[in-house]
Design brief:
heterotrimer; A alpha+beta; B alpha/beta; C alpha+beta; A: alpha+beta; three-stranded antiparallel β-sheet; globular; B: alpha/beta; five-stranded parallel β-sheet; two-stranded antiparallel ribbon; 7 helices; 7 strands
């Protein structure tokens, strides 16, 4: 018995695209090598639309849509590169830089950081918004890993990889607005967590230098999250 | 006519100035195109009026820095924030998580309020270290810690000839 | 009529400083003070950071000698890890350190001081800079640029970047040296040697024109301090502390740098962010000592490389006992450049230099670590305390330039008293007051870091010298 696949046809930046009905705009775009910037999206994890970098324009409405959580629809006309979008992307990145303390020069991820790379590719040479300089903690209680909250952008990739791939759900988010923080278990030092398996997936999923291994010294340590979709595939073939 | 160039360091480590000197012989070549009218490496004690280009390194950390940068802005046509300290606050701004008195106490074993004579005549640390553009308008931003000599050379060469540069192609935060 | 003369800023040196001179009713200089006007607070804001980030962070203390901070910080972290780094890594760090000394000394000599040395202290201020030197003596100017470039390029080839290279890490270095890179550096050495030797030859004739300056530029008996290796040579990367007096007699020897609090005290002086270290057994201010090139050449039996040793013998013959005039820091710097080039050559020829094991790994094995090395300007120490998790709880830095604070202040007074009289205040005279500081080649961004809260004795005196107030803290 065959299942019919519901196919939608739409346009992205003028190009004709066909996609499955259950695909998001982002998935369709990536499949067709159309680049849309993202930070909270990570291949293999669910999407949450947290960072708002993937916003796109859809003809017929002035509203912008987060492409990672918006399903394709028949006849949609999407544009990903307008001046308005470029402006908002830069603004989003600037707000991220201004919100906490991103001291690139001394960071373990300097040169290998997704926030930094996106900043440069969007032409950022300075941050217009006033820096907040909040006081943020460093939790080095875990034997192998450290989290520096100064560098966290609350993308929640760590939360999702731990919950969805490892299954431990050690990480979650506490607080609202500017007091939001990622926490381990019941907001306790990571080293005292009973659920953490020390697998290190969160470290590899983290786009910045917030989460890192204690043995990583110097700068420019590249993360390797490529195992995530691979693990997904392996699990699917086994079930 | 030669353009007038000034270089200043505020609260920085002088690394950006060293990178400037890292142009090596290119600096001597470029020197034919500008008059260095104020700089830590020349003996001019007063910042002159009517400077065409000012390269400023370092963040604004004391009341003296603030006074200086406002004066420099007034007397400069094109103000360039050179390096991460000037552009973002960078490492000096790490003291913003601590109070000024705790910083001074750690350094001197006592707080200025108890020993005012100790700090008489010295600049006062501002409560917050700030990047230059939070105090005055900046025309060009050159991030990097420090921006490479190649970046500075390209920038200077273009500015001296009246051209423009796409800085983001050359350098980034933490470069 | 009393008068205050302020020199602000002091130019052609690294960092922020001003000098105030106080003259009495007869126009003679009564007091002189050197104020350092910058403080960033590294020892405070590094609290709470993971210790293995310290080298990169401490590197930002200074853009001229970042390598010195990188290395000394990494040594303190090595002590926290309680590791002995692989021999190849130690040799590679040594090469980096020596390259640093070359470029920093070249900066000091050619970019900052040669305007005075070549053109004279009274030369037109508009000419007294690198560009004026390049116009008046193109070979000297260009040679200086090339020599500094040599040092910077060695750093870049080894460390990846000229300024703030992240190559030095706790436990060793990040990557080994390739044969190709080694050969590139070896090819650059002949030119560097030639420039240094030519400059030395020129300078040994030139300095005879500065007899008055030699006599008066911080020329007084003092102790000298520095790291010395077991074979009686300056220990740039390693060694034990030695104190020597002005006659050349060794006052204290084989001191463990990690025990610095036992023999170095410090004094807080008003109106400057720079504190004054002194040799504790002799008290303050009798315990004044100097560090840096002049000290290092006084302290050792020899340099340990052939060309430099020849120059060293000639240098020491300037005076019986220790060479005392701070003007001769310039001469000492040139000899150290020569020695460093020779030593780099020897290290590159070492059989272990291309070894691939360059990092020792461990976790925290000690809650305290102290590292010491000779920076271009003198002995540098980094002292860290961490908690069980590896976060810094306390950091203390003894900065090379800081050791010279007392000597610099005394130097200005000496120069000012000799040259400044009544209404005769020319630009050349004021330049000389600054030039004595330049001889020390202070790194002022580095220097505004206290030795810490050890027995601070704070005295407030009135112009008559009466003690007004005193506060002690243990």
């Amino acid at each position: 018995m065959t299942q019919t696949v519901d196919v939608k046809t739409l346009k992205i930046d003028g190009a004709d695209i066909s996609a499955r009905a259950d695909q998001t705009i982002l998935e369709a775009a990536l499949e067709h090598n159309i680049a849309i910037p993202t930070l909270c999206h990570l291949d293999g994890l669910s999407d949450v639309g947290a960072c708002r970098l993937c916003l796109v324009e859809v003809a017929g409405t002035s509203r912008l849509f987060p492409s990672c959580v918006t399903l394709v629809e028949e006849g949609m006309q999407i544009s990903t590169q307008s001046d308005r979008l470029q402006k908002y992307r830069r603004m989003t990145l600037e707000l991220l830089f201004a919100e906490r303390n991103h001291v690139c020069s001394v960071c373990v991820s300097n040169g290998a950081c997704e926030l930094q790379t996106l900043g440069q590719s969007h032409g950022l040479t300075h941050i217009e918004f006033p820096y907040r300089f909040p006081k943020q903690p460093v939790d080095a209680s875990h034997e192998r890993f450290t989290i520096d909250h100064n560098r966290c952008i609350l993308c929640t990739r760590c939360v999702r990889v731990c919950a969805e791939i490892e299954g431990a759900h050690t990480w979650d988010v506490m607080g609202r607005g500017e007091t939001s923080r990622v926490i381990t278990d019941l907001d306790q030092p990571w080293g005292t967590s009973e659920s953490c398996t020390s697998c290190g997936k969160c470290v590899q999923a983290c786009p910045t230098g917030a989460l890192f291994e204690k043995s990583q010294v110097g700068t420019g340590s590249k993360k390797k999250p490529g195992f995530i979709p691979f693990l997904n595939e392996m699990r699917e073939t086994q079930s | 006519m030669k353009k007038t160039l000034a270089t200043v360091w505020l609260d920085g480590c002088s690394g950006c100035h060293m990178s400037f000197l890292d142009m090596d012989e290119r600096l001597l070549e470029l020197a034919g195109q500008f008059d260095l009218v104020y700089s830590p490496i020349v003996d001019q004690k007063i910042f002159p009026q009517g400077v065409d280009i000012s390269l400023v390194e370092g963040s604004v950390s004391t009341n003296e820095d603030e006074h200086k940068i406002r004066m420099i802005r007034e007397r400069t046509t094109m103000l360039v924030s050179l390096g991460d300290c000037a552009v973002t606050g960078n490492v000096p701004a790490m003291r913003n998580s601590f109070s000024v008195s705790s910083v001074l106490e750690r350094a001197f074993g006592d707080a200025p309020v108890n020993r005012p004579e100790m700090f008489a005549g010295l600049p006062q640390l501002l409560p917050r270290v700030r990047p230059i553009h939070e105090v005055v308008k900046v025309d060009v931003f050159v991030p990097g810690c420090p921006p490479s000599a190649d970046t500075i050379y390209t920038l200077l060469r273009e500015l001296l000839s009246g051209g423009t540069v796409d800085i983001a192609r050359l350098t980034r935060f933490g470069a | 009529m009393t008068r205050t003369i302020i020199i602000d800023p002091v130019t052609r040196l690294e960092g922020h400083a001003r000098i105030t001179l106080q003259t009495n009713g007869e126009g003679e200089v009564d007091s002189a003070r050197f104020h350092v006007t910058q403080l960033r607070g590294f020892e405070k804001f590094c609290e709470g950071r993971p210790y293995y980030e310290m080298p990169m962070l401490m590197s930002r203390i200074c853009g001229i000698c970042p390598v010195s901070h990188l290395i000394t910080s990494a040594k303190a972290c090595d002590a926290i890890l309680a590791v002995r780094i692989p021999p190849t890594a130690a040799k590679l760090r040594r090469i980096l350190n020596l390259a640093q000394i070359i470029q920093s000394h070249a900066l000091s000599f050619f970019y900052l001081s040669s305007p005075d040395l070549l053109l004279g202290m009274d030369a037109d201020p508009a000419e007294r800079n690198l560009f004026g030197v390049a116009r008046a003596n193109p070979e000297l100017g260009r040679g200086g640029v090339r020599l500094r470039q040599f040092g910077q390029q060695v750093i870049e080839l080894l460390g990846g970047k000229r300024i703030h290279p992240g190559w030095v890490i706790p436990g060793g270095v990040n990557a080994p040296l390739s044969g190709q890179t080694r050969d590139r550096i070896l090819a650059m050495i002949p030119e560097a040697l030639s420039i240094t030797q030519k400059t030395l030859a020129w300078y040994k004739i030139r300095f005879e024109s500065f007899r008055e300056e030699i006599r008066t530029f911080a020329n007084f008996p003092s102790l000298f301090m520095g790291l010395v290796t077991g074979t009686e040579r300056p220990g740039y990367y390693d060694g034990k502390i030695r104190f020597m007096d002005a006659t050349g007699k060794i006052v204290a020897d084989n001191l463990d740098p990690a025990k610095y609090t036992e023999y170095i005290g410090e004094e807080v002086e008003p109106s400057t962010f720079l504190k004054s270290p002194y040799y504790k057994p002799l008290g303050y201010p009798k315990g004044i000592y100097r560090v840096g090139p002049l000290a290092r050449l006084n302290l050792s039996e020899r340099c340990g490389t052939p060309l430099a040793d020849q120059e060293w013998v000639e240098f020491r013959s300037l005076e019986r006992g220790a060479v005392l005039s701070s003007f001769h820091y310039h001469y000492a710097r040139l000899i150290e450049i020569l020695h460093s080039i020779e030593r780099i050559h020897a290290l590159l020829d070492d059989s272990e230099i291309l070894g691939t094991h360059v990092r020792a790994t461990a976790s925290i094995n000690s809650l305290e670590g102290i590292g010491a090395s000779e920076a271009p300007r003198g002995t540098l120490m980094h002292h860290y305390r961490v908690n069980e998790e590896g976060l810094i709880t306390w950091a203390n830095l003894i900065i090379a330039t800081g050791h010279n604070n007392l000597a610099m202040n005394r130097g200005i007074l000496q120069v000012a008293r000799h040259y400044v009289h009544g209404d005769k205040l020319t630009d050349g005279i004021l330049n000389r007051v600054e030039a004595v500081i330049r001889a020390f080649d202070p790194c002022l961004s580095c220097s505004t870091h206290a030795v810490g809260q050890m027995g601070i004795d704070l005295r407030l005196v009135n112009p008559a010298g009466d003690l007004l107030d005193r506060a002690t803290r243990q």
